[in-house]
């Protein structure tokens, strides 16, 4: 059984950790957008979601020990959704999927 962590029990703690990690781009892994996006989402919109997005869904615990959530941000009037995972070590952010809504 996975023990609850502050990131799992508090959406605010999850968002804070995402933003803390995203301040150093070396700690953020974003695959080529062609492989992880739906629609015409731009890299700048992904960064907007990481820097100022609101939590749309989550946080949830994954089998590998990471903590995931879906961030939402409005850019040019359209919602952008970015699925992210914080590694089990808590020091890297992985972008899993990006879509426009």
Describe this structure as you would to a colleague.
The structure is a single chain. This protein is α/β, with parallel strands linked by helices and 101 residues long. The chain has one domain (6-100): YaeB-like fold (2-Layer Sandwich), CATH 3.30.2310. It contains four helices and six strands. It has helices at residues 6-9, 11-22, 33-36, 43-52, and strands spanning 28-29, 37-38, 54-61, 67-75, 78-86, 93-100. Strands 1, 2, 3, 4, 5 and 6 form a six-stranded mixed sheet that branches. The longest helix has 12 residues, at 11-22. It is globular, with a radius of gyration of 13 Å. The mean pLDDT is 89.
Query: Helix-strand pattern, N to C?
Result: HHEHEHEEEE
Question: Which shape, going by the Cα principal axes?
Answer: globular
The amount of helix comes to: 25-40%
In CATH, the architecture is 2-Layer Sandwich
Supply the CATH class. Alpha Beta
- Supply the number of structural domains: 1
Secondary structure category: alpha/beta
What is the C-alpha radius of gyration, as a whole number of Å?
13 Å
Number of helices: 4
**Beta strands, count:** 6
Write the layout of secondary structure elements.
Elements: H1 6-9, H2 11-22, E1 28-29, H3 33-36, E2 37-38, H4 43-52, E3 54-61, E4 67-75, E5 78-86, E6 93-100
Parallel strand pairs: 1-6, 2-6
Antiparallel strand pairs: 3-4, 4-5, 5-6
